[in-house]
Amino acid sequence: MMRYPCLVLVLAGGLLSLPTRALQADLAPETLRKGLTLIKLGQLKEAISLFEQETTKRPDEAQAYFYLGLAHEKAGHTEEALAGYRRAIELKPNEADFHYTLGRFYLSLGDEEAALKEFELAQTSAPQSPAGVLAEKEKRKLQMTLKDRALVEDWLKKEAEAKKAKEATGGETELSPEGGKEGAAGEAAGQIGEEAKREPAEKLIKTLRHGRERQRRQASETLLAYPAEETQPFVQILIALLRRERVVDIRKNIITLVGQTKTEQGTEALLRIFKNPQEDFQYKLVALASLGSLQEKKVILALRTTLSEMVASRVREREEARKNLDSLQKQLEELETEKLTLEAEISTLETRRNELQNKISGGFLEPGAPPGVPGMPGQPAPTLKPADIVKIQKEIKTLEQQIEGKRKQIELIQQKRQEAEEKKMRYLSLLARKQTQTGQETASAVPAVMPPEMAGPVEETEEGKNEQQFALALIDTLGRLKDEESLPVIRNAWQEYGSQQHQLLYDLALARLGDFSRMSSLLERLREDLPEGEAEAEVKLRCSIIEVLGEYLKVKPDEELKELLQYLAEESSQPQLSEAARQVLGLKKSEPKEKKKAATTAQKGPGKTGPPEIPPPEFARPPAPITR
Q1: Which stretch of 196-200, 279-283, 527-531 has the lowest confidence by average pLDDT?
Q2: What mean pLDDT is predicted for residues 437-451?
Q3: Does an H or E element contain 565, and which?
Q4: How far is CA 463 from CA 73, 283, 467, 469, 497, in A?
Q5: Mean pLDDT across 261-271
């Protein structure tokens, strides 16, 4: 028992004084890199599976649980994400990054009290770290929001009291902002009822500014049903809210509201979204839809310029990819070498620190053995003078500072490596996508040697899909606006963003701008059977084809095509198609078929038969399947 008098001291002071990371090894760099790449590419099932395997192999590894939580959060699995983050914090309670990330997640869920607590823990754990600094900013912002909300709630309470007093004196009544329940919609969340429509716009705007997330969401949805004249006075407030709102669906609603005001300021705000390269394409899509068919010259110019710049950016980025892939790979290898060198230096420093800790504790360990294990029995413990102990403790502190400094260097290297990996993936994706979309690139455009994660088809990221969708929406909009100056821009954009499934959209845009070189494909679509259920979108598409067919006939008269329009005007089973054809032909509005049939029957009288039904012309029948 007396042989190891310092064992308890070693366990309590030596081991527990070590930085947490010395006790628990971080994830292997290649595992972390692979997992983050999967998350970035949107392959969330694979990322979740990878990190779950790590938690099974090493159940005490905090990083594995943290990134498992991150993957679940991206996948929308709230409970699983919370479980991952909380377990990571249990294993590493003083990790500022973990607390900050969990705080942001709580904030997105609307749990502001829990978010505030996590931000405070992140700040106190490492106040000078990047996570600590960010947590401090978020904490202050959240405290200001809570303070403002308290003022609003006090105002609502006073207004409710004033309303009761007014009712008691027989005055007119109006609904309070809270509507007796949670918000403007009261009885059914998400549904805009008559009571919600009677809510004054000013009160809903106040809720949108200062309410909780659910209240803000409901207020934004309710305001969408209001006429422009009621929201116009608040356009500047809406624009300010647009800049600060972080919840995706609320921000989308605000963008739509800004567009619905039909004001100069609102239009400028939406155009700024187009011009901002940092804006997500999902918001640009909503801004484009909010502008609608606004035919102002500056709007058309902005749309054309945006599409042109997107194409130019893609071309530049692809050229950069061709030039820089090799140097980027070399940079990744250099970063990996630098990281491995630092890890080796840390290992040497930790070995020296452990030796000094055991020297103080009286242990006799071989160099490199873990601290806290007693020496061989029967050997006398060395006697150290107080001055020697102080000197050794100073050296231990210096070693720990050096270790921590090198760990921070590794963190910076890992961050640089992740950024380089993401850029590399983007480059490879651009080259592969260009090759598969247009078939114009040669096989040599894509590097022959590709990393394992790039094997097989390149999966587009969500932002990449939104970028393509936005470009196609711009092509469609510029076609509808009949901006003939956009024709060369649209052709270039199609080379970058086009795909077989959107070919008809491109053909229609060309025809609207006077290029009828793809009319054959439009006529093919017009002759095909309508899909089951006669989808509304398909009917609208065919109405657009009929419209451009009328423009085509003005340039190149064709009796057969005119007969096709006459046939559709008289015999189409779809009233919208019939009416579209009649408008192109300049005919009067058609009567409903039932009324027309009844009138024909009355004219014939009983027992009479009408003329034999004339079959449609050959070119109006559905064509045989065409192999493309």
Answers
A1: 196-200
A2: 40
A3: helix 559-571
A4: 17, 11, 6, 10, 13
A5: 90
Burial class (CB in 10 A: 0-12, 13-18, 19+), 327: exposed
In the prediction, which pLDDT does 15 show?
A: 30
Q: How far is CA 164 from CA 145, 152, 157, 159, in A?
A: 29, 18, 11, 9
Query: What CA–CA distance (Å, rounded) separates 554 from 548?
Result: 10
Which tokens hold the place of 276? 């901002």
Q: Are 236 and 266 in contact (CB under 8 A)?
A: no
Tokens standing for 297? 């010259």
User: At 628, is the secondary structure helix, strand, or coil?
Assistant: coil
Q: Which residues have C-beta within 8 Å of that of residue 136, sequence separation ≥ 6?
A: 119, 123, 127
Q: Would you put residue 176 in left (φ > 0), alpha (ψ -120 to 50) or beta?
A: beta
Dihedral sign for Cα atoms in the order 442, 446, 449, 450: negative
371, with CB counted inside 10 A (0-12, 13-18, 19+), is buried
Residue 489 has pLDDT above 80, yes or no: yes
Q: Are 69 and 79 in contact (CB under 8 A)?
A: no
d(CA 74, CA 69): 9
* N-term to C-term CA, the chain: 87
The structure tokens 């155009």 sit at 271
Instruction: Give every CB contact of residue 34 below 8 A, 6+ residues apart in sequence.
Output: 50, 453
pLDDT, one tens digit per residue, over 220-233 is 999 999 998 999 99
The tally of CA atoms less than 13 A away on the side-chain side of residue 404 is 11
Mean pLDDT, the chain, integer: 76
Q: What is the pLDDT of residue 373?
A: 41
